[in-house]
Design goal:
This protein has 82 residues and is mainly alpha-helical. It is 95% helix and 0% strand.
């Protein structure tokens, strides 16, 4: 029984050592950093695209409002001319 407990303890130590492999950890960390940087760049690109689209929509909305105002003025002037 003691042998089994010792074997289990030894297996746990191996697992701990495998997870503490500094070379593996550095690679994983650098990969994570690269992924995070890529995600941040993509998010910034998406935000820029979104803001550009919103600005275009706002401008189109303003142009539409201007055209509607001109249409109303023309309709009013037609009413008064007849």
């Amino acid at each position: 029984m003691d042998d089994l407990l010792r074997k289990d303890d030894h297996d746990d130590e191996e697992d701990v050592e495998e997870t503490r492999n500094p070379k593996r950890k550095r690679v994983a960390t650098s990969d994570i950093i690269k992924i995070l940087a890529d995600n941040e760049a993509e998010r910034e690109k998406s935000n820029t695209t979104f803001l550009e689209i919103m600005a275009d929509l706002r401008q189109q909305g303003q142009q539409k409002n201007n055209l509607l105002e001109r249409l109303v003025v023309l309709q009013e002037s037609k009413k008064h001319s007849f």
